[in-house]
Amino acid sequence: MNRILIVDDERLIRSSLNKIVEQIGDNNVVAGLAEDGDSALEWLSRHYADLCITDVRMPKVNGLELLKAINERYPWMHAIIVSSYDDFSYIQQSLQLGAVDYVLKPVDRELLRQAINRSRDKMKRSRYDFAHGLTLKKLSHHRDMLLRWIEQVKTVQSEAMPILVVDTLEMLERWVGDDVYHLNMLAMVWLEVVNEELSKEKLDVALEEGEDVGLGEAAIPVERLRSYFRLCAVRRLEEGAIRLFEGSKAAAAKDQPGRRATEEVKKYINAHYDKKITLQELADAAWVSRNYVAILFKKATGMTIWNYLVMIRMQKARDMLLGTPLKVYEIASRVGYDNSVHFSQLFKETYGLAPAEYKKRMED
Q: Which of 132, 262, 288, 306 keeps 20 to 30 A from 222, CA to CA?
């Protein structure tokens, strides 16, 4: 999501800008509203934002003073000025302070949408360039991790993927230190490096950046920021790893019989992971016999149907564990387990830590 802070001393203008951003959509969300620069800085001391849309003339701390403070304290943020004043000196000062655009009131929705898109593109380019440069700098000292990815993808060791992802995340976290907002793009660049190495083996997979809708609230408190960006990076690494594993399997078994049946089984499990699932239900979904469906799935994926079910359930459970206040027994129930002790054992086998320990480690 592109989280936006709107700052204007007129309540109706704030409301109007809020509505325009909602209408624009495209994963742009209003994370906060402030009536002047002073209250905006107070809000930013407690929450995260990617973009500030601010008026120029305001009481206490004006828009230009706010931009200066944002540049000093929150260097990752971008800003768009909205103003009733077509004043060259304001425009000049705003652009000198790094504002992406200067939009006149009354604000035209299309002009604001274009300005927000420019801001978003600029932010993504900046973070990509940083992530790419940092990866090139660090890679020579972490060839062992790259080789782990190559080996596990080539041999389709998908059951080891969760631990590989956690170990990779810890490595990337060490690289960025407190600048956790880089984790998401850094995970994407890491996947690109892995994919580039695999292309030398005649395996080239189309990776997508993916979306993080649903992983966090519009307004993220600073104390939960590391946890949020960790979760984004984990999802990115998992999605990329799954694509790489699927590409490896497809390259090794083009036109393999049973691929359609396997995909139907996966679709059924992904839709019903929270319920009791029988082999007969999966066979019916795949239009093959009860005995044959298990054989086809193992041959196509390298894992049993039940191992795949556990993997999906643990991924869903991990997302709930880190993204909601639900208790362990409540999460167990929501992913299909009546026995929370059994659930915790499976979680530990998957991620190397019990649920409570895993949450503490990810949030510390």
A: 132
Beta strand pairing call for 78-83 and 28-34: unpaired
Q: Which of 252, 277, 301 lies at the terminal end of a domain, its last residue?
A: 252
Closest-CA residue to 20 (of 84, 98, 100, 105): 105
Residue 230 lies in a domain: yes
Q: 53 - beta bridge partners?
A: 6, 80
**Beta strand pairing status for 51-54 and 2-7?**
parallel
Q: What one-letter code names the amino acid at 169?
A: L
- The sign of the dihedral angle between the CA atoms of 149, 154, 155, 156 is positive
Quote the domain boundaries for residue 176: 140-252
pTM value is: 0.68
Q: What is the dihedral of CA 337, 325, 180, 14, to 10 degrees?
A: 130
Query: Could you write out the DSSP letters of every residue in 115-153?
Result: HHHHHHHHHHHHHHHHHHHHHHHHHTT-HHHHHHHHHHH
pLDDT at 255: 44
Distance CA 61, CA 81 (A): 14
Sign, CA torsion 42/45/46/52 = positive
Spatial CA neighbour of 21 closest among 7, 9, 39, 10: 7
DSSP, collapsed to helix, strand or coil, labels residue 79 as strand
Say what the pLDDT of residue 211 is: 60
Task: For residue range 334-352, list pLDDT tens digits in order.
Answer: 999 989 999 999 999 888 8
Q: Could you give the angle at which helices 259-272 and 279-286 cross, rounded to 10 degrees?
A: 130
Confidence (pLDDT) at 252: 60
Which residue matches tokens 């995340």?
Answer: 169
Q: Which of 252, 287, 316 is the last residue of a domain?
A: 252
